[in-house]
User: Which sequence fits this backbone?
């Protein structure tokens, strides 16, 4: 009995202990296929308040008050990486599989391929886009928009234990009533659990206003916002299988004859499946 009992105890202790630490680094690997889906919904509400005369002018212009807009987009794409060369580079092809938004689809048709390269351990750089008969300025705009998808998932490499946190700050600008609202987005990530090959990180995000770009004091502008979300991180593949966050934001611009309140609610979900070639 003793010979059976001792290994049983060791096995039980091992199962209870579990993994408590990860080397967190989000990167693309050579000779790998990443199928990604980006889904986002945005609800915006614009509300004016002011004098009776101002309200009458809004009605005369046919402006609804408050006015509401809802938009949802879904983009499916495939990232395919090639072999690592002697310079530590490997090629990347991003192919658009499907786009729900008809306006974006007009400039970035289904089947479009974008090309770039990557160094091991870093986010890729897109350098060209395969769209025939499209204005070069539009091509540059679409290339920049797709490149920005990678900046959203660029993280510093960290060794994390359960409960550890790290933060990332990004500047953010938003036009409101002819002004430019400058804000900092502070995002805090916390490793909350490790279950097998999947690590869960909780996201807390806050928008902090820095002011406007203009010196005209006839406008008093304020803004704030934040949200919460989660990352499911594939430890073996060094990439996330899910990135999800819900956000709210409100900006207020006050002038002599009216006040404008602009609020948004958004939900973003990015999912990925990863297969080695």
Assistant:
């Amino acid at each position: 009995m003793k010979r059976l009992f001792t290994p049983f105890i060791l096995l039980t202790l091992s199962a209870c202990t579990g993994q408590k630490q990860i080397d967190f680094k989000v990167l693309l690997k050579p000779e790998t296929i990443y199928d990604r889906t980006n889904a986002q919904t945005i609800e915006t509400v614009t509300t004016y308040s002011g004098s009776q005369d101002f309200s009458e002018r809004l009605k005369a212009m046919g402006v609804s008050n408050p006015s509401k807009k809802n938009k949802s987009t879904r983009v499916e794409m495939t990232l395919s990486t090639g072999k690592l060369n002697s310079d530590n580079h490997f090629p990347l092809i991003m192919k658009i599989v499907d786009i729900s938004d008809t306006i974006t689809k007009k400039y970035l048709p289904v089947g479009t391929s974008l090309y770039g390269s990557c160094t091991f351990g870093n986010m890729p750089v897109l350098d060209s886009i395969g769209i025939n008969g499209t204005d070069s300025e539009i091509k540059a705009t679409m290339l920049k928009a797709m490149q920005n998808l990678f900046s959203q998932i660029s993280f510093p490499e960290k060794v994390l234990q359960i409960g550890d946190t790290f933060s990332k700050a990004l500047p953010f600008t938003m036009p409101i009533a002819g002004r430019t609202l400058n804000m900092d987005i502070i995002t805090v990530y916390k490793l909350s659990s490790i279950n097998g090959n999947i690590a869960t990180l909780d996201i807390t995000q806050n928008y902090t206003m820095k002011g406007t770009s203009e010196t005209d004091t006839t406008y008093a502008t304020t803004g704030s916002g934040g949200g919460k979300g989660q990352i499911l991180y594939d430890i073996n593949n060094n990439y996330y299988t899910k990135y999800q966050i819900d956000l709210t934001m409100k900006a207020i611009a006050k002038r002599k004859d009216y006040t404008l309140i602009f609020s948004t609610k958004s939900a973003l979900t990015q999912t990925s499946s990863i297969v080695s070639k």
